[in-house]
Amino acid sequence: MLSRRTMIASTAGLATAAAGPAVAQAPTTAATPPASVAQAPGFYRYKVGDIEITAVHDGFANRPLDGLIRNAEIGDVRKAMAEAFLPETTLPITFTTLVVRSGGKTIVIDTGNGDVGAPTTGRMAANFRAAGFDPASVDTVIISHFHGDHINGLRLKDGTAVFPKAEVKVPEAEWAYWMDDAKMSAAPEAMKGAFAGVRRVFGPMAKDVARYEPGKEVAPGITAVAAAGHTPGHTAFAIASGGKTFMLVSDITNHPALFVRNPNWAAVFDMDAEMARQTRVRILDMAAADRVQVGFYHAPFPATGHILKDGPGFRFVPVQWSPAV
């Protein structure tokens, strides 16, 4: 029987034999390019019928694993991380915005962290331009909910509007909650910063912001889908064209390795944990049954694939990367 030790030794022997006589290595010169410190621009295109979707990467931020999940033992969480070959102390949370070209319009769904997030975030603007888009040519910006990593890319720290000509559309229930002065006054101290961030972004444009309800078409081929729980007006989106449907599930889960595999786990980010759990299971069940392609905000880039029912939970199957759109 071939043991692991024998295999390693045999492989080493084959490598030595194949190498033949020793060959001197070329010295490193000043012309040797330096080690790379950054990836190529982060965007990826695919189509749903006649609609073109471009995933645009906004970077990542590390979140300590302790306290991330309210109703699971930390040992179980670390086991889930290890099974997904992820760190067992921190969760690398990624951020992916979408640009949709539909009906002759350029539509942005969520805007990333902007220039106020962690140093490893805020890549959306550069990647957006690298993908061939001009912020001044965006017709519509659709927001799924008002957490900072989804809205801060609308406005720079200096107050400049990033998409100056775009109509901005937001969920009616989000607006009603986050723009309510009484709710802001009554909010716990830990949430007051979130309220202030919402006012920073939307205050200067408040009279021009359009609000939408679930079930309504918010742009050509894009329909808002009720997905409350993560926040009061959290919204997913069905994108349909040519008999094909794509479901952007926004933040019904954070990293799929945790919350798709374990849909009953409650993330600390969910404002109404039980409602968020019901929404998560409902939408994942639907995606699995209908075999539709899904997109996440926090899945590994390009954050799109399919959902399979797998025992008590589900499994996320990423799309195969393709050079053709």
Instruction: Please report the distance between the alpha carbons of the first and last residues.
Output: 48 Å
CATH fold node name: Metallo-beta-lactamase, Chain A
For the biggest sheet, the summary is: 7 strands, mixed
Please state how the strands of the largest beta sheet are arranged side by side.
Answer: 1-2-3-4-5-6-7
Look at the structure and name the CATH superfamily. Answer: Ribonuclease Z/Hydroxyacylglutathione hydrolase-like
CATH architecture: 4-Layer Sandwich
The SSE order reads: HEEHEEHEHEHHHEEEEEHHEEE
Round the Cα radius of gyration to an integer and report it: 23 Å
Descriptive report:
The protein is an alpha/beta fold. The protein has one domain (41-318): 4-Layer Sandwich (Metallo-beta-lactamase, Chain A). The chain is 26% helix and 26% strand. It contains nine helices and 14 strands. It has helices at residues 4-19, 74-83, 124-130, 148-151, 172-178, 181-186, 189-202, 256-259, 273-290, and strands at residues 43-48, 51-64, 90-102, 105-109, 140-142, 167-171, 210-212, 217-219, 222-226, 235-241, 244-248, 293-295, 304-310, 313-318. A seven-stranded mixed sheet has the order 1-2-3-4-5-6-7. The longest helix is centred in the last third of the chain and has 18 residues, at 273-290. It is globular, with a radius of gyration of 23 Å. Residues 4-29 have low confidence and may be disordered.
